[in-house]
Inverse folding.
């Protein structure tokens, strides 16, 4: 995969999320990766400010959206995938193991009887190693569980979009304490990323400014991660990593938007069905997470 896709990053400061428009310069075919629907937890109101920025860029550059991709069921922001799909088209895709996530969180939120736990809310469920096209660009979906059971890396030309599996080298790696997460599994998934060519460009889903760094960053390479990642650089002992990750995770608080985010994102970005009064609700399970 030596082709070089065009990439435009969009940073959402409220959730520290980076969304991407990735396109093939030869055909103007594009994919959108990890979009954000803005959500105010105090009022329960949503607005498409970040998504509209993506739409403007797509339209201003005459791009055709073929894919709207999720690297995983996010726990820190709501996906804007349905909003983007309605306005730009494209197939909404995620890894096939989203079915496991839907099972776990469908139970936690006591989802309505009509909630499907087979991934059918998404237009495409990728298997590990499955290839697809963005115009003339070749892409591969790589299953990288550990942070969640359904995490995927999208390897597109000379670039890879790693979701939460890795952060910038000075920030480390994903937490593994969500349901279905596992530090040993994360270690194995990171080795799959490290097996890509060292020059492969890596694009993060989040950045929080590492200590001592006063700017946001989201692009690195496989070689830089292998040489410098503070949690898992080459030569790091697997058992030492698992111990570090497990102890670190035990001290972390839950993401602020985990409860609304997962309810929406397990539905491919759709809100729960309206109740008999015509209003849609997000649930807050007490003492359950």
């Amino acid at each position: 995969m030596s082709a070089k896709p065009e990439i435009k990053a969009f940073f959402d400061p409220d959730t520290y999320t980076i969304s991407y428009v990735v396109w093939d310069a030869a055909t103007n075919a594009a994919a959108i990766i990890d979009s954000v629907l803005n959500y105010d937890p105090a009022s329960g109101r949503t607005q498409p400010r970040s998504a509209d920025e993506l739409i403007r860029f797509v339209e201003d550059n005459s791009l055709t959206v073929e894919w709207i991709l999720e690297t995983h069921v996010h726990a820190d922001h709501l996906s804007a995938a349905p909003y983007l799909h309605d306005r730009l088209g494209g197939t909404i895709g995620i890894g096939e193991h989203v079915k496991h996530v839907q099972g776990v969180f469908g139970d936690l939120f006591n989802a309505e009887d009509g909630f499907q736990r087979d991934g059918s809310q998404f237009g495409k469920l990728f298997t590990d190693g499955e290839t697809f096209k963005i115009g003339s660009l070749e892409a591969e979906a790589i299953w990288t569980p550990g942070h969640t059971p359904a995490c995927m890396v999208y390897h597109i030309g000379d670039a890879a979009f790693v979701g939460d599996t890795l952060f910038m080298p000075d920030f480390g790696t994903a937490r593994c304490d969500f349901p279905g997460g596992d530090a040993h599994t994360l270690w194995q998934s990171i080795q799959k990323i490290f097996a890509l060519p060292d020059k492969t460009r890596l694009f993060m889903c989040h950045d929080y400014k590492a200590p001592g760094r006063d700017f946001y960053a989201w692009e690195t390479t496989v070689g830089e991660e292998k040489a410098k990642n503070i949690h898992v650089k080459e030569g790091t002992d697997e058992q030492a990593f698992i111990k570090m990750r497990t102890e670190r995770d035990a001290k972390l608080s839950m993401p602020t938007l985990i409860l609304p985010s997962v309810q929406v994102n397990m539905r491919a970005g759709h809100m729960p069905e309206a109740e008999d009064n015509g209003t849609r609700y997000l649930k807050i399970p007490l003492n359950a997470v």
Remarks:
- The first strand starts at residue 6 and ends at 12.
- The chain is about 25% helix and 20% strand.
- Helices lie at 49-60, 81-88, 98-108, 183-194, 222-228, 238-249, 258-265.
